[in-house]
Amino acid sequence: MATAQDWLQGARPRTLPAAIVPVAVGTGVAIGYGRFSAWKALLALVVALALQVGVNYANDYSDGIRGTDKERVGPVRLVAAGLAAPRQVRDAAMASFAVAGVAGFVLAATTAWWLLALGAAAVLAAWTYTGGRHPYGYRGFGEVAVFAFFGVAAVVGTAFVQMGSFSWLALAASVPVGLLACALLVINNLRDIPSDTAAGKRTLAVRLGDQRTRLLYTGCALVPFGVAVLIAVVRPLTLLTLLALPLAWAPVQTVRAGAAGPALIGALGRTGRLQLAFGALLTLGLAIRL
After folding, report:
1. DSSP result, 186-233
2. Residues 268 and 184: beta-carbon distance below 8 Å
3. Residue 157 CA to chain centroid, in angstroms?
4. What is the pTM of this model?
5. Which of helix, strand or coil describes residue 161?
6. Angstrom distance (rounded) from CA 18 to CA 14
7. What share of the chain is helix, strand, coil (3-state, %, to 5)?
8. Of 71, 23, 54, 3, residue with least CA distance to 177
9. CA–CA distances in Å: residue 10 to residues 2, 34, 87, 117, 126
10. pLDDT tens for the 290 residues of the chain, in order
């Protein structure tokens, strides 16, 4: 019987910055244009967090019933560890998606109905990452989906529901956000290369191999600072993101030094802290117009 702590760990709280940061950055864009809406920002955050938790439980369920998590190094998985029945974990994923759906429906009803299609696509992408007959996460496309939904869609969508219009600035800001979200997935998959290879799970890390995956992580962690410098042409205070650069040093060094297995778990946590710090500073830089 899974405890409350087991369910909390199954939700993988270290991945939640990937949901919080894009909503904060999109809100920063809206504030900069004088179009901030607190309740819409809050609903967007509910959508993002519920989707993130939902995809984590969905992955736990799908990987568990496929048997691809038996030799897992990272955080406990409920199904693979026998802590919860597959049906219970599946239902937890569905409940999370339902919460996201309700919050998303309110946003669509008060902004634009086409947002329902975007929400449906996000839920479908969350489920088929490791679920269904042809999971795209097993074919190396996980990072593409993360960049699209926890980068572009989340930042641009959050800004849109508050502003009522599209903004090129939101699109530009979504690039570093998406890259840092990808960094979390890349380091996670780097850690799991041995077990994923044995299970036949062809993630991007498995396809690229160890060394090139480490280079990919380095790029995902450092390129966002270059993009923020470019955005500073129109929002000078986005240069504040450079204050977070020292936080990139430790995880990048750990990855570049060849750390593997459990040694990468700490680097994953530090990557999450980097993402939060960068996101907070980028949000501030976007919100304040000079």
Report:
1. HHHHHHTHHHHHHHT---HHHHH-HHHHHHHHHHHHHHHHHHHHHHTT
2. yes
3. 15
4. 0.92
5. helix
6. 9
7. 75, 0, 25
8. 23
9. 10, 39, 14, 28, 16
10. 778 888 888 888 878 888 999 999 999 999 999 999 999 999 999 999 999 999 999 999 988 888 776 555 556 788 888 888 999 999 999 999 999 999 999 999 999 999 999 999 999 999 999 888 889 988 999 999 999 999 999 999 999 999 999 999 999 999 999 999 999 999 989 998 998 888 888 999 999 999 999 999 999 999 999 999 999 999 999 999 999 999 999 999 999 999 998 888 889 889 999 999 999 999 999 999 88
Structural element, H or E, at residue 31 = helix 17-32
What's the CA gap between 46 and 32, in Å, rounded? 22
Buried b (16+ CB within 10 A) or exposed e, 123-159: bebbbbbbbeeebebbebbbbebbbbbbbbbbbbbbb
Helices (H) and strands (E) counted in the chain, each on its own, are: 13, 0
